[in-house]
Write a structure and sequence with these properties.
Among the domains are: 26-35 and 47-82 and 90-245, Sandwich (Jelly Rolls); 251-268 and 278-343 and 387-429 and 443-483, no CATH class; 487-509 and 550-688; 829-891, no CATH class. The chain is 37% helix and 19% strand. The chain contains 32 helices and 32 strands. A hairpin with a 3-residue loop joins strand 2 and strand 3 (59-61). Helix 10 (488-512) runs antiparallel to helix 12. The chain binds 2-oxoglutaric acid (AKG) and fe (ii) ion. The site of 2-oxoglutaric acid has 9 residues, from strand 17 and strand 19. Residues 709-721, 925-948 have a biased composition (Low complexity). Pfam families: 2OG-FeII_Oxy_3. Residues 353-377 have a biased composition (Acidic residues). Residues 694-708 have a biased composition (Gly residues).
């Protein structure tokens, strides 16, 4: 491992050595004060007085605890459970002690404020806790252990927000106790508190404190009674990003900086490869030594050694530092079918977790033998057993590693989860020599087990979960490369942060120079990505002007956005431009003053143009926010090439994204002139189909302008270069509501839209479904207004509708009749004929063997809606028994009622249309007149004039009973 794959020897070793130096000053994972606190080497040397203790229902309790008060406490308390998964469980095999809740116990205020605070301060110092002033000890329980009392190895759950550790203060008891060693383990080390020594001394105060993720156990109390107060150690304020210790780390810092420089050089020397691929050497992960969860992992809450390491890394300006929580999930099938997970668990099959070998040496390295599973050889075949349950494991179903949480120093950064760290290859020092086996990184003991019994198609499975927090670093100068691999979201987050930082700097600058352009500055809001000021001059020449080199990354991030937009398809590492607001955010960032200032005069707007063109080609103009961003960008830029590209975009996507294009052409934020061109391009694409020269809207750019004129890769399937006749092409594909929306603009919108009114009306009339469009169009206020104003083209729409309605009205009000000429009942011609004919009633027999069959026939053909769907209205009922089952069908007037309703609607609509057109003739008479004129002209007399009494003879009102017939079918 003398050289790295990048060919520059040793950057990785140097990095590892520098990082190792950071471990030298860290606090211990556990702090133990045996015997009298006063004598302790860790303590401040002050004698710690005993608390005045009082218990609800008992009053003051004198210390050391006497026999009587001990008995009273034991009867006031209850057996202590332990946390198992999400619940708490009582199991004397795992834990045997008596507890009193904090609410039952009172400690005098003086003791809490002086003695306890002092103990906490000493504990924090020993554990290496940063900003100890925000740490408090909250009493959790008073515990009593009688002979046989113990607590098997466990980790403490973090019981309240901010809790990171446990403090145990042992109270003296008359006669003391024997046995009871508290053993705290962490990273292969163990620290032991022999709690018996001095446990009876009147003034003795012994304590221990440890990080809650450290495994600990209390071995058996063999005689006497042990009493202890257990406190949660809680951070009451969010911790800051850890700082390295003030002195003594210069060597480490210098070594680190040198290593990072070597790393940068190695990366610069090696080829970059595909844009969206992360090079194996681009970043490194260093596992943290403590355990963290999704809720407690943060820069401010790192523990002991981890805090010191991360402090050192954060102090190195050349590095970007992140935290990630990685989970490994391994699942096995379980061999023994009869094996019952719950039963084994109840029987306390957890001996492998309990090691009572009397390992007395403090600070001794231990073999980590509390493994998740043990191996055994069985006739040559390797068998694995789960150590907690004894289950025999068979095949590994899966073994996968996922990122649960990703934190940058500014907070969670979801986007970087997409990097999907492969810890076997990116762990510092873990490359190439097998050191970084996945199992090694995650530890042998699972943090969580999950058993799933037999399901429909799989046997029982046992799943293990392992969690490992890591600190991830990469050279800041290479940030854009790493983020590119995570996708456009990750790149944008960094770019936006950079821009915000620039804002902050400029704001500060303005505060510092109140003279000069003060008035102007006051009038100009600081740039917001959404509303950039138009004068970039004040934003300096470029990122090289930025304080502290903060602008260094700007060019790379801007380039990364462009590259990702042009993207090799599928190379987005789980990200895509479709998600969220990415196109809009990207465009806003690219037209922000700092970016424009960097691009300079001639290149101004080039990145925005590149983005727009690339996204337009891939059809990603689907979001409303992107449209708004395009409009603002155009007005921020005032760059003709950009405007041309926007026009080309609208021309290209008019058919597939009509609403969006319309939104763009009417977006108030867009410059007015551009809006006019967009309206023209849109209408042309939809209606005239490139028929150049239509007034106001004709725009060459709509078909060939901008830089994205290739047209060959249009994904929406429309070819705007081909002339499309009125009513064809784009317009034919528009939905009703789209046509209505367009009508508002062509009747009452901007001039560029209104110029297209004639073509629009012609296109509407040219559509085969024109009569379906017209009612909605004529009801649209802008169209109605145009008709009222006798605008000739809009009037043609009204005329066309009126003609259609008149024809219907002229046929007269529907006459009541039992005839239902549109009735359909396939398979039953005789029934169909009856339904179409004038008879009201029919009896059908001989078709069924049993009445239920007849009933289901009725349900099928005369049940809810069946008739209405098939052009008839009748009810039917089944009667009779066995083969004599029959069905009686009786027509009703629902169908006729519906026809009348429709007719009345037609009359009403015709009245409305006539009113619009200023025609006040009585509708039915007028229509009839029109129609009879037409009829007589054609020599036909099919219709009756409206208002004439209907032919009652047609309508058999009630049929005499005797006339009923049975129609039998053979
Ligand atoms: O009794 C002790 O010293 C330790 C108790 C303990 O580990 C716990 O309550 O979680
Ligand atoms: Fe504990």
């Amino acid at each position: 491992m003398a050289s790295t794959s990048s060919g520059s020897p040793g950057w990785q070793e140097r990095l590892r050595d520098a990082v190792a130096l950071a471990g030298s000053q860290h606090g211990s994972f556990a702090w133990i004060v045996d015997g009298n606190y006063e004598k302790s080497e860790c303590g401040s040397g002050a004698e710690r007085r005993l608390p005045s203790l009082s218990v609800r229902g008992m009053g003051p309790v004198t210390l050391p605890l006497g026999r009587e008060s001990a008995a009273a406490l034991l009867s006031a308390g209850s057996p202590a459970p332990y946390g198992h998964g999400l619940s708490t469980v009582l199991d004397p095999e795992v834990r045997r002690s008596t507890q009193l809740d904090a609410a039952e116990v009172e400690l005098d205020a003086g003791w809490r404020e002086e003695e306890l605070a002092g103990i906490v301060a000493d504990a924090c110092a020993a554990l290496g806790v940063r900003s100890p002033s925000s740490v408090r000890a909250h009493l959790y329980k008073l515990l009593l252990y009688e002979p046989g009392g113990h607590f098997r190895p466990h980790r403490d759950t973090e019981k309240e927000p901010g809790m990171f550790g446990t403090l145990v203060v042992q109270l003296p008891v008359a006669g003391g106790h024997e046995g009871g060693e508290l053993r705290v383990r962490h990273a292969g080390q163990v620290r032991v508190w022999r709690t018996a020594a001095g446990s009876q001394e009147p003034a003795a105060l012994q304590c221990a404190a440890f990080y809650a993720d450290c495994e600990h156990e209390l071995t058996m109390i063999t005689s006497g009674l042990r009493a202890a107060l257990v406190f949660n150690l809680v951070r009451t304020a969010p911790g800051a990003v850890p700082r390295p210790p003030p002195q003594g780390h210069t060597g480490a810092a210098e070594a680190l900086m040198a290593a990072v420089r070597a790393w940068e050089a190695a990366l610069a020397a090696a080829p970059e490869g595909a844009a969206a691929r992360l090079r194996p050497d681009a970043l490194r992960a260093i596992p943290l030594v403590h355990q963290y969860t999704e809720t407690n992992l943060s820069f401010g809450r790192l523990k002991g050694r981890d805090a010191e390491l991360v402090g050192l890394l954060c102090d190195c300006e050349a590095l970007e530092v992140h935290l990630a929580l990685i989970a490994r999930n391994v699942s096995y099938t379980v061999v023994d079918e009869r094996w019952e997970y719950e039963r084994r668990k109840r029987c306390g099959f957890s001996d492998a977790l309990y090691d009572d070998s009397g390992d007395d040496d403090e600070d001794e390295d231990e073999d980590d033998e509390e493994d998740g599973d043990e191996e055994d050889r069985d006739g040559g075949r390797e068998r694995s057993y789960d150590s907690e349950t004894g289950a025999e494991l068979e095949d590994c179903v899966w073994d996968r590693v996922t990122t649960q949480l990703w934190l940058s120093r500014q907070g969670p950064e979801e986007e970087l989860k997409a990097l999907e760290l492969d810890l076997t290859s990116v762990t510092l020092g873990g490359c190439g020599d097998g050191e970084a086996q996945v199992g090694g990184i995650f530890g042998a003991k699972p943090d969580r087990r999950e058993y799933e019994g037999y399901t429909g198609n799989t046997g029982p499975e046992l799943a293990y979960w392992y969690y490992r927090a890591v600190v991830v670093i990469w050279p800041r100068a290479r940030g854009a490369e790493v983020r590119t691999a995570a996708g456009v979201g990750a790149v944008l987050v960094a770019l936006e942060r950079l821009l915000a930082e620039r804002d902050r700097q400029l704001q500060q600058l303005q505060l510092q120079q109140p003279g000069g352009d003060e008035a102007e500055a006051a009038g100009e809001p600081q740039h917001q990505a959404s509303a950039p000021p138009r004068d970039p001059g004040k934003h300096g020449k470029g990122p090289e002007d930025w304080e502290g080199g903060a602008g260094d990354q700007l060019p790379q991030l801007v380039a990364a956005v462009g590259r990702l937009a042009e993207g090799r398809r599928g190379a987005f590492a789980g990200e895509s431009w479709e998600r969220g607001d990415l196109p809009a955010r990207a465009l806003r960032a690219l037209v922000s003053p700092p970016v424009l200032a960097w691009e300079g005069g001639a290149g101004r707007g080039a990145s925005a143009l590149r983005l727009l063109s690339a996204l337009a080609r891939s059809g990603a103009v689907r979001s409303g926010s992107f449209i708004a961003a395009i409009a603002s960008a155009a007005s921020a830029l005032s760059v003709p090439a950009f405007d041309d590209a926007v026009v080309a975009l609208v021309a290209r996507q008019a058919v597939s994204q009509t609403e969006r294009c319309l939104q763009l052409a009417t977006e108030a934020a867009a410059p007015e002139e551009l809006r006019g061109r967009l309206a023209g391009a849109l209408m042309e694409a939809l209606i005239s189909g490139g028929d150049a020269g239509s007034g106001g809207g004709g725009d060459a750019a709509a078909r060939g302008g901008g830089d994205d004129s290739s047209g060959s890769d249009v994904t929406d399937g429309s070819d705007v270069g081909e002339p499309v006749g009125a009513g064809n092409g784009g317009f034919a594909a528009l939905k009703l509501d789209q046509v209505v929306t367009l009508s508002k603009h062509v009747c009452a919108g901007a001039a560029a839209f209104r110029a297209h009114l004639p073509a629009f009306c012609a296109a509407v009339l040219g559509r085969p479904d024109c009569q379906a469009l017209l009612p909605a169009l004529l009801r649209e206020a802008a169209v109605a207004e145009a008709v009222r104003a006798r605008e000739p083209h809009a009037t043609r729409l009204a005329e066309a509708r009126a003609a259609e309605l008149e024809a219907v009205v002229a046929r007269g009000r529907p006459v009541p009749s039992w005839e239902q000429p549109e009735a359909r009942l396939p398979g039953y011609p005789q029934v169909e004929a009856f339904l179409r004919g004038p008879e009201k009633r029919m009896v059908l027999a001989g078709l069924w063997k049993r009445r239920p069959q007849a009933q289901s026939w009725v349900d099928q053909h005369f049940g809810c809606c069946a008739g209405t769907r098939n052009g008839y209205s009748a009810t039917a009922r089944a009667d009779g028994v066995g083969t004599r089952a029959y069905v009686t069908i009786v027509k009703d007037h629902r169908l006729h009622g519906e026809r009348v309703r429709q007719y009345e609607q037609t009359v009403a609509e015709l009245e409305e249309v006539r009113a619009l057109m200023g025609d006040s003739r009585p509708t039915e008479a007028a229509a009839a007149a029109v129609q009879s004129g037409a009829d007589s002209a054609a020599g036909a007399s099919r219709s009756r004039p409206a208002g004439r009494p209907s032919k009652r003879a047609n309508v058999p009102k009630a049929e005499p009973r005797s006339k009923r017939r049975r129609t039998s079918s053979t």
